[in-house]
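Task card 7
Instruction: Convert sequence to structure tokens.
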Amino acid sequence: MFPLIDKNIELIWPLFPVGMLIILIASLWLFTLILRLKSVIEGRVKYSDVMFVNLDAMPKRVALLSRSHDNQYQQPLLFILLMLFIMHFQLQGVAWFLSSALFVTARYWHAFEHVRGNHLLRRTCAFIIASCTLWGMWCALFVTQLF
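Output:
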């Protein structure tokens, strides 16, 4: 796939986009934790609201971060599973790499729009791009492994 690159890199390349998603998930978790703690300390949110994840009682920014963090346990987990299959079958090629890069980029864009911009049309576009890319990759995996 990549000329003049060690064979081991070709086999473990799926770990790079997975690592980028893990950084995104960890960052959203950390920011959510910090903002929730700050809100409780400042008295804007009751401890019970945090304990029972009552997002309606939390400030808008905290609720948006929480929802964005929760959202990362949907499509990205399917993507991580896909990357494990790609590693298992030792699939290589520019299309796999570019598709995974497009998916991760769309997820970062979606998280940004969810947390900072909250522009529904742009967020929906990011979601559609990520969804179509992910399902296209799953279809390609099934086709390449079945035929």
